[in-house]
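> example.struct
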């Protein structure tokens, strides 16, 4: 009898094991398909969100570029004004130096300020 029960028992255990594995495999597959469908359903929603973020970023970049352009123009104007003031400064220094050389006694009465001493 033992010879007959071993194959039957093996058949039942093997079949049961295959059934259990098949059941869990079917559940995992069903869950994966469900999650995949949910992700695919949210695809257009994410696309819209990403597009909105791109549009916002592009708008911010355009504003930044406009501001940078304005600042570059202003910087150019300031550099031009600085060059004008530099040239005027050196003309004034040269004029004062000429006066001091023409009237040496004026140096004692009106000495050159310490801040300007190096320029003379």
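> example.seq
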């Amino acid at each position: 009898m033992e010879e007959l029960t071993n194959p039957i028992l093996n058949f039942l255990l093997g079949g049961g094991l295959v059934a259990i594995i098949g059941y869990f495999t079917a559940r995992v597959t069903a869950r994966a398909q469900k999650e995949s469908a949910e992700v695919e359903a949210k695809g257009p929603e994410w696309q819209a969100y990403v597009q909105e973020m791109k549009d916002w970023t592009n708008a911010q970049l355009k504003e930044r570029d406009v501001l940078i352009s304005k600042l570059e123009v202003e910087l150019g104007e300031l550099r031009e004004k600085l060059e004008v003031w530099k040239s005027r400064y050196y003309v004034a220094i040269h004029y004062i130096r000429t006066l001091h050389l023409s009237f040496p006694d004026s140096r004692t009465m009106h000495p050159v300020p310490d801040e300007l001493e190096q320029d003379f």
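> remarks
Residues 1-41 form one domain.
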